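Bit of a strange request maybe. I'm writing a small parser for structure token strings and I need a real example to test against, not something I typed by hand. Could someone generate the tokens for this chain?
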Amino acid sequence: MRRMLRDLDWLLLAATLLLVVFGIVALASATVSLGGPWSYIKTRLFHLAIALAAMVAVVLVDYRRLAGAYRFLYVGNLALLLAVLVIGVTRLGAQRWIPLGPFGGFQPSELAKIVLIITLARYLSAQKPPSTLPGLVPSLLHVGIPMFLIVRQPDLGTAMVLGAILLGMLFLAGVRLNLLAGLGGLALMGAPFLWSFLHDYQRRRLLVFLDPGIDPLGAGYALNQAKIAVGSGQVWGKGLFAGTQNLLRFIPEQHTDFIFTVIGEELGFLGGALLLLLFLLWIWRALHIANTAGDRLGMLVAGGIVALVVFHVFVNIGMTVGLMPITGIPLPFISYGGSSLLATGVATGLLLNIGMRRRKILF
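Reply from user aminoacidic:
Good idea to test on real output. This should exercise your parser:
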């Protein structure tokens, strides 16, 4: 136990806890105009307790043993994603949640990201890096099957996350850049085909991203209001619980996907910069764990988690300032949502697990 505590990455753990606290403060302010923050905070603390329990449980089990159950994890993941399409409830036009009665709902696509990181790392660590495009087919199928089920929900944002994880892990596995570029080229060639399968609201979001003025009161409304909120915060912000865009509820989903707008408006540039510094600290420690992992499997799992979090942060914050199209991708540790917090808790547990087991631990 002493060796475990000695090798625990305390900086990563501290960054995680600070991000969670930051998120609770932002949530309290974001929900003032939604009937009062207390009920949201109580639910958030309940979700946090589950996420912390999951993190501790993951830390205690050697990550190699977890990866050894890759068949069970992969099949179980597909079963949950299929269950969503059969018994899932629909909210905001998407069928993504399995109902859990008084506990709300569970979103399997959030946990699917972590499962795919583990199972893909297990496959790639046991193989030589593919040297041809056909050699990438097993990895593409590995990610493509759950990606297809997620697109059917529909959840294009999470499908994009899985694509980012795949590219990041293939790069870390040693796949040549020209092969990855060829893979990206094939994806671009397939974009017109994908366009025909997008729902109308997804097409409008992409068009509004290119020209926010074409539908300022419809598909472009959230983007325009988010940019106003972040810009009006200037350097110091308007102060907690004092954001006009927030209090007047001009921003849809301000406590979930658009919570960074509340931070930008009320805490200003300095508050947003502080949040980014916390994320950079978390990512730096995660990269350190990947770089010093005891084996190839640990490096790939940690690297996949870095790709996951970096993509989430970049897309979520980017969409609030007009750099990315609007998606349903939450801000890790910050956005309201139990499934997302559970997934990030498990991801953090895996990182701590890998970092602790650079040397052999005897229980």
